[in-house]
Amino acid sequence: MGRSILAGFPGRASRRRHAAATVILALACLTVPAAPAAAQAGSAPRTDPALARLAWMVGTWVGEEGGVSMEEHWIPARGNVMLGLHRDVRPSSATFFEYLRIQSTDDGIFYVASPNGVPGTAFRLVEARGQRVVFANPEHDYPQRIIYWREGDTLHARIEGKDRGRERSSQWAWQRVDNPS
Fold first, then answer.
1. What's the pTM?
2. Which helix (H) or strand (E) holds 30?
3. pLDDT for 39-96, tens place per residue?
4. Closest by CA position to 81, among listed 111, 61, 60, 59
5. CA-CA-CA-CA torsion sign (27, 32, 38, 39)
6. What pLDDT is stored for residue 1 in this prediction?
7. Which pLDDT does position 181 carry in this prediction?
8. Which residues pair with 96 in a beta bridge?
9. Is 115 helix (H, G, I), strand (E, B) or coil?
């Protein structure tokens, strides 16, 4: 059998600690004002150019569907990792959250999703063209593909693949907001 798609990522217990640290870092990055550009330029670690080309995803994106308010936040890539956070909220409570990261490793670029804080599942970058990107993990139960694309101020996401032998997909669209409240 081939090498696991999660090779190079921490083990289960370590992944939980890593996920907690990722959340803290993501929240800190979303709430702390950015340093002046000149200060960032001098100290910024190098980022894989292929990862930097996904900058079109950066920002705060919001939408609503079926009474559920959705938001997805992406911060710029630094040190070969781009962090994201997704949350769905009904009027009374949060219904779903997901910690996200897109990370450049020696084995390629991976989208790692941690729905509701569970250990992450990695999806390998298989296509990046303009403002469209596709990640795949054919060994995952569902989904096997995650697709993002941008049209103007709208960020779209789609998951697809086989679920118990049947083709299935879900798709969302979010609008960019400059000053989230």
1. 0.76
2. helix 12-31
3. 445 566 788 999 999 999 999 999 999 999 999 999 999 999 999 999 999 988 878 9
4. 111
5. negative
6. 37
7. 66
8. 88
9. strand
Measured CA to CA in angstroms, residue 83 lies from 30, 99, 121, 124, 162 at distances of 10, 8, 15, 16, 27
In whole angstroms, give the CA distance from residue 142 to residue 161.
Answer: 6
d(Cα 67, Cα 91) in Å, to the nearest integer?
A: 8
Q: Is residue 94 a contact partner of residue 87, using CB atoms and an 8 Å limit?
A: yes
Q: How large a percentage of the chain has pLDDT more than 70?
A: 75
Residue 128's CB is within 10 A of a number of other CB atoms, namely: 16
- 39, 115, 140 from 56: Cα distances, Å: 23, 23, 27
Cβ-Cβ contacts under 8 Å for 27 (sequence gap 6 or more): 85
Beta carbons within 8 Å of 140's beta carbon, 6+ residues apart: 121, 123, 161
Nearest-angstrom CA–CA distance, 54 and 134: 11
Strand-strand pairing, 68-74 and 81-89:
antiparallel
